[in-house]
Amino acid sequence: MQQTLWFDPKKIFIGGAWQDPGNAATIAVEDPSTGEVVGEIGQASADDVDKAVAAAQLALEGDWGRTPAVERGRLLTRLAQLVKERAEELAFLESTDVGKPMKQARNDSVALARYLEFYGGAADKLHGTTIPYQEGFTVYTLREPHGVTAHIIPWNYPMQILGRSVGAALAMGNACVLKPAEDASLSSLAFAALAAEAGLPAGALNVVTGYGADVGRALSTHPGVDHVSFTGSVLTGQHIQEAAARNVVPVTLELGGKSPHIVFDDVDLEAALPTLVGACIQGAGQTCSAASRVLVQRGIYDEVRRRMAEVYAGLRVGPAAENLDLGPLVSAKQKKIVSDYIVLGKSELTVAAEGVIADRAPAAGHYVAPILFADVPPDHRLAQEEVFGPVQVLIPFDDEAEAIRIANGTDYGLVAGVWTRDGARQMRMARRLNVGQVFINNYGAGGGVELPFGGVGKSGHGREKGFEALYGFSRLKTVTAQHG
Ligand code: NAD
Asked: Residue with the nearest Cα to atom 34 of ligand 1?
């Protein structure tokens, strides 16, 4: 790695101190652009998870638990400032760890700072209410933190996801234990060091690294954890929810998606075109809210297909540092999964267009050319399953009713984009789509710190981001006083 780190990636962060993990084995950090090992991170043991949860509990009983809301807000705002000062270095870390082009990684640094600013400002704005009750009583509610919150995050947008999750949890006064993905832990460790520099009391934030099957599992099943926030795959989400059920604690699940753009024939195609493609290929398609399906009304279908194919033919894939349209996928494993889907698509579907991998892209990097399939039956696997790569399918439809049927016809329900100038249709569609977010004549894959975000169906439940997340990271206590 060509940059001096301000933390030791082989250590874990517990109770405000950097510690050697109980497990001596390390995990290699690979640069997906080159396939080269550029560092290593530590592997926490189950004992370390116990210590992290205990440190969080101690923080709640001590300084952190007594920190007033306004001061929690100031700490988050200070942390936002430190993130801004280190924005370029954080972007470089994320770009090296995940393989995303620097211009996209820079957006992630900006978003992390913005989450901290937003939740810093919101920390003292949420309060309880008084409730009219019987004569002689005063009843009010207190909004309180859950206690110890576990945050298990994936590798695709570590900075953004930790920002929205840990930011909101700290704002409400919880003490957090963060478990980043084994493929991309550097920015979480960097963040812990900045949190300490900002003056966050010991134990308010703890970071344990390692594999999901042991460290993630130890954390999500831990009886000392009072709330679990998980972003990742459906299968792991099911394990997490089962564990939460056994401990009877609340859980927020942000899982996958098969999100549609729905393009009506009165669309302003010129304005829509960059977003129709961009909302899928961002992050090389490894985005839970990627608009991987494009439903197009028949009257404009051929034109949309032709114009999108032109864009695809011009897409370039290469090393993150080169800032092309797409970087590599995160790992050899992810490349295999996506490549298998592309082989399936090529054998059963029509290819509308493909992008190009730059000649100079290192052979050991995990590159996949983005691909657009045309005339895809809505029940085809590529129209139903989340590929998590730069693969987009075009599906024709006749009318609004058919568009809604196809759009709602997967197991998922995360985001939908509706492209039409007809205001009444915009409102009808927004109501009938079974998703957590609808974008009308725009699409915000991953965007919008202020906008509540989450899914229905297998996309998960609970809402993060925006003010809504503060309700999720707190609980209500009702106080009933009889005074005559
Ligand atoms: P994953 O579920 O394999 O891993 C996510 C996290 O869970 C990692 O930190 C991992 O170490 C941990 N983990 C794995 N097994 C575990 C277990 N048994 N117990 C506890 N923790 C465990 O997912 P992934 O491959 O890293 O990420 C890709 C998936 O994440 C995609 O399906 C994508 O749609 C989804 N995702 C969703 C959102 C969203 O906000 N909805 C955002 C990003 C990614």
From this structure: 256
Q: Which two tokens stand for residue 40?
A: 């290593």
pLDDT at 445 over 70: no
Mutation to probe ligand 1, out of 41, 49, 97, 152 (largest number of atoms < 8 A from CB)? 152
Give the residue numbers marked as catalytic. Answer: 254, 288
pLDDT in tens, 126-138: 999 999 999 999 9
The atom number, within ligand 1, closest to the CA of 243 reads 19
Strand partners, 384: none
Task: Give CA–CA dist 167/366, Å, rounded.
Answer: 32
CA atoms within 13 A on the CB side of 23: 19
**Domain coordinates of the chain in residue numbers?**
12-255, 260-448
What are 203-214's pLDDT values in tens digits?
A: 999 999 999 999
Specify the pTM. Answer: 0.97
Looking at the domain 12-255, which fold is it?
A: Aldehyde Dehydrogenase; Chain A, domain 1 (3.40.605)
The C-alpha R_g of the chain, in whole angstroms, comes to: 23
Q: Could you tell me the fold of the domain covering 260-448? A: Aldehyde Dehydrogenase; Chain A, domain 2 (3.40.309)
